[in-house]
């Protein structure tokens, strides 16, 4: 009976101690603790200072530098133009596909109606462009008759002849006032000693306007040639 009790106590002791002993053995065979700094990446190299600009010392070096910069600008411009052309081509293809899909789902009557609308829009755009060319010719003629600089014709154009004429009248008033202010300012300036070279001659601004009128003639001829070409 006593021997049986001792065996029971022995088994109980083993049951109590076995988990702790197994845990100790498992910890013994476990991987060693990792080095705290083993997984950190190596420190990055400090950024290098940009190389200082070396000014060209000879004409040849200067020419090379200028040529290099010019080549760089040309290359960038070509790349930009190519990218823009490709984008425009892609957009045109998408628009054509969308138009084809749209037409595919229309009846014959609907297709004819759409074509008529497009033709009307194109005709209106051409008429508008022609009207603007006619207005520009008329504006140049009016400016030339008034001895005003015809280079302002594009800025004075409006949607119709009436509003264009109003713009020219407003411009004429401001231009004449500016000329008058210039004459007044010159008359206020003191006469230089030893001669009258600084005096304002009578009709000086009239001569300037006459010269301006002569210079306007080629512009008028170019505009007329462009209209009838």
TrEMBL record:
Transmembrane segments annotated in the record for this chain: none
Region feature Disordered, mapped onto this chain: 27-83, 184-229
UniProt biased composition (Basic and acidic residues): 58-75
Polar residues composition bias: residue spans: 212-229
InterPro entries from the UniProt entry: Gp46
UniProt biased composition (Pro residues): 33-45
Record's protein name: DUF4355 domain-containing protein
Lineage, top ranks: Bacteria, Bacillati, Bacillota, Bacilli, Bacillales
């Amino acid at each position: 009976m006593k021997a049986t009790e001792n065996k029971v106590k022995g088994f109980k002791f083993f049951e109590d101690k076995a988990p702790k002993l197994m845990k100790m053995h498992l910890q013994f065979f476990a991987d060693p603790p990792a080095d705290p700094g083993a997984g950190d990446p190596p420190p990055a190299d400090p950024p290098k200072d940009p190389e200082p600009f070396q000014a060209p010392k000879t004409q040849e070096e200067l020419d090379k530098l200028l040529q290099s910069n010019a080549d760089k600008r040309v290359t960038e411009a070509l790349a930009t133009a190519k990218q823009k052309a490709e984008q425009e081509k892609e957009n045109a293809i998408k628009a054509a596909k969308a138009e084809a899909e749209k037409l595919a789902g229309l009846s014959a009557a609907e297709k004819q109606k759409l074509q008529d609308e497009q033709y009307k829009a194109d005709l209106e755009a051409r008429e508008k462009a022609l009207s603007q060319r006619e207005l520009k010719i008329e504006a140049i003629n009016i400016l030339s008759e008034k001895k005003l600089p015809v280079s302002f014709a594009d800025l004075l154009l409006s949607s119709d002849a009436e509003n264009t004429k109003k713009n020219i009248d407003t411009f004429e008033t401001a231009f004449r006032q500016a000329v008058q202010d210039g004459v007044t300012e010159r008359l206020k300036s003191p006469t230089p000693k030893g001669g009258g070279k600084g005096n304002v001659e009578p009709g000086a601004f009239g001569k300037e306007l006459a010269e301006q009128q002569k210079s306007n003639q080629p512009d008028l001829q170019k505009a007329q040639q462009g209209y009838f070409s």
